[in-house]
Amino acid sequence: MQASPGITRPMTGFTLVELVTVIIVLGILSVAIGSRFFDRSGVDDVVTRDQILALARQVQMQAMQRTDSSSCHSLLVASHSVRVADANCALSAEDDLTVGAGSASLALTNGASAMALPATLVFNAMGQASRCNNGCRLEVQSAQSTALCIESQGYIHPC
């Protein structure tokens, strides 16, 4: 049976504009309110790990490009910071070559054994880190722990 053309039914439901508006408003509210329930420590740990990762890759690349024996390409891993050594193997005084872990602490392991901090990782011309013969794991320990790995062949990646 077909409805006669003169009879119209009342429309029920929402229009597409109303649905999209409600979804946008709920999205804005969830972002504004959701941030109150999550603290920044997990995000800070990931950012610290990524900064250390970038610093380690930079030193590794410099070691592979400058292969003369007079250059020193090393990272000093302390309990709350990672620093780059200058060409004379002295610690750099520049703040942009230091990554601070803030309230987080750092732990360095070689295979299954923990390494005493501060520890120096020297990169050779092949990009391999000394003291990482079995692979190293640098962990940023806080509310949410994150880590980066330095493989024995020199590959540096988040793990």
From TrEMBL:
What are the top taxonomic ranks of the organism? Bacteria, Pseudomonadati, Pseudomonadota, Gammaproteobacteria, Enterobacterales
What processes does the entry annotate via GO biological process terms?
A: protein secretion by the type II secretion system
Keyword vocabulary terms for this entry: Membrane, Methylation, Transmembrane, Transmembrane helix
GO cellular component labels: membrane; type II protein secretion system complex
Q: Where in the cell is it found?
A: Membrane
**Residue intervals passing through the bilayer:** 12-33
Against PROSITE patterns, the record matches this protein to: PROKAR_NTER_METHYL
How does this protein lie in the membrane? Single-pass membrane protein
Under the heading Gene3D superfamilies, the entry gives: Glycoprotein, Type 4 Pilin
- The answer to whether keyword Transmembrane helix applies is yes
The identity of this protein, by name, is MSHA pilin protein MshC
Which InterPro entries did the record assign? Bac_GSPG_pilin, N_methyl_site, Pilin-like
Query: Is Cell membrane found in the keyword set?
Result: no
**Top-level taxon of the source organism:** Bacteria
